[in-house]
Design a protein that fits this description.
Ppx_GppA_N; 6-stranded mixed sheet; Nucleotidyltransferase, domain 5; Hypothetical protein af1432; alpha/beta; 504 residues; disordered N terminus; hydrolase; PyroPPase_GppA_Ppx
Length: 504
């Protein structure tokens, strides 16, 4: 869940909403405030309850498991005690769908929460997960495959933009599979193979249809998949996304252990469930031919929250986020647009030479032009550092951690000495492009230092190996002594990158 996102331009009284997800493994709650058309995160609570572990062979939910859930809900209830009942939505998923005595638990839970609880069908769960993912991920052309591995079930959705085309919930989850195949924490190739085959059998029911419909990008959500992604990154198997190769390498690594206690690649509370979750994800990759999977911060509870707020607007959530940052920090929009125009003009002239042809490069440069001055809201002195801090440490809806990191680096490096070593924190594959975008932003910002409404003359920027040539119309630069001095200083700064700036 991200910090803020607009609903409409209409001013409305502040109100609070709470979305609660009673999952098979964990209970989650998100509390958010609606202020003048914006959703602002207020609180997040999450507790590992493992309801699914309390189901016996007859699908009877044990008293111990019920008590774990009820004690968690008592803490949730205190947090939302001042909210009107209509502002709270509570949904239960697979464990309570399966439990034959679920009604008993619901009645006790409703007494605590003083509002109704819903057991939602698997496909409704899948729909809400898809909504949560779409509202917190950048829009994509073509079909998107969303996979969410829960404690008792796995949801798989194919959709285009905000419209699901295929929804499915399969009876396989990290808790139920742990009980079945890794009950004592022992890890063996035989047990892992059995778990994988069981998942493949479940996937057979959707395999042909999903492959026929196809997709252009794949996204995973919730704790199990994020834990697998983090394990892959910590082992150096991938830079950001889960790839088929990284997944296979992680599988081999885990199979080298004899017990879950030996697993150090994930947090302690995730170790027991990792082999089962990994087997399910490996099966999904194999069955559906997945090559790469990104991860989403949004899932079921975010989908609930956005649906409650009536926020089904088909727009790029990142554009909303950037606009909100500009409003929040009182950015000079005219100046931002001037810098944007010059930066994109320069990009268009060097994109081939510098390998900056990906549309995301232009997008990132444009967003940087819009936000590089947000630090002025704190202080003019060192404002580029303030801007970087705000961008790095804010929840920006639709932006991944890596996106925020790049945006912060562009803001940090747009003036003064070039912090070239800071770019080493990026994956190797991103460093060069980000440094080059920073150079373009620096030049554009410098050329508009006087913040004048007078239109800049056309400029010509060319790149030849390590030399940048910046040309202006004849006689123009001689009439701009401040710009001339700034460009001379910039030439000195760029030497640290091995670049020679020639101005004429």
């Amino acid at each position: 869940m991200n910090d803020t996102s607009p609903l409409s331009a209409t001013a409305t009284p502040p109100s609070l909403l709470a979305a609660i997800d009673l999952g098979s493994n964990s209970f989650h709650m998100v509390v958010a405030q609606l202020i003048d058309g914006e959703i602002k995160l207020q609180d997040v609570m999450s507790e590992k309850v493992q309801l699914a572990a309390g189901l016996d062979a007859d699908k009877l939910l044990s008293e111990e498991a019920q008590q774990r859930g009820l004690e968690c809900l008592a803490r949730f209830a205190q947090r939302v005690s001042d909210l009107p009942r209509k502002a709270i939505r509570i949904v239960a998923t697979n464990a309570l769908r399966e439990a034959v005595n679920s009604r008993e638990f619901l009645e006790r839970a409703e007494d605590i929460m003083q509002t109704s609880l819903e057991i939602i069908p698997g496909r409704e769960e899948a729909r809400l997960i898809y909504l949560g993912v779409c509202q917190t991920r950048p829009p994509q052309d073509g079909m998107r495959l969303v996979i969410d591995i829960g404690g008792g079930s796995t949801e798989l959705v194919l959709g285009e933009k905000f419209q699901p085309r295929a929804l499915e919930s399969l009876e396989m989850g990290c808790v139920s599979f742990t009980q079945r195949y890794f009950p004592d924490g022992q890890i063996s190739k035989a047990a892992f193979q059995k778990a994988t085959y069981a998942a493949l059998r479940e996937l057979m029911s959707i395999q042909k249809r999903y492959r026929r419909l196809g997709w252009s990008n794949c996204v995973g959500s919730s704790g199990t998949i994020k834990a697998i992604r983090n394990a892959c990154i910590s082992l150096g198997l991938t830079e950001e996304h889960i790839t088929a190769r990284a997944l296979d390498q992680l599988r081999q690594k885990i199979l080298g252990y004899r017990h879950v206690d030996e697993i150090t690649e994930v947090k302690a509370e995730r170790r027991a469930l990792l082999p089962a979750g990994l087997a399910i994800l490996c099966a999904a990759f194999d069955s559906l031919g997945i090559r790469e999977m990104a991860c989403s911060e949004g899932a079921l509870r975010e989908g609930l929250l956005f649906e409650m707020a009536g926020r089904l607007q088909h727009e790029d959530i990142r554009e909303r986020s950037i606009s909100m940052l500009m409003r929040r920090y009182h950015v000079d929009r005219h100046q931002a647009e001037r810098v944007e125009r010059s930066a994109l003009q320069a990009l268009g002239q060097v994109s081939d030479s510098w390998g900056l042809n990906d549309p995301q490069h232009a997008q990132m440069l444009r967003w940087a032009a819009h936000t590089h001055e947000i630090g002025r809201a704190i202080s003019h002195a060192q404002y580029h550092k303030h801007s970087a801090y705000l961008l790095q440490n804010s929840d920006i809806a639709g932006f991944t951690n890596l996106d925020r990191q790049q945006l912060a680096l562009l803001a940090r490096s747009h003036r003064r000495k070039f912090p070239k070593d800071d770019f080493k924190q990026l994956p190797d594959s991103r460093q060069q492009a980000c440094r080059r975008l920073a150079v373009l932003l620096r030049l554009a910002s410098l050329l508009h230092r006087n913040r004048s409404h007078v239109k800049m003359p056309p400029l010509q920027l060319t790149v030849d190996n390590k030399q940048l040539s910046l040309r202006f119309p004849a006689g123009w630069l001689e009439q701009q002594p401040l710009t001339q001095a700034d460009l001379e200083q910039e030439a000195e700064y760029l030497k640290s990158l091995g670049l020679k700036l020639q101005v004429s």
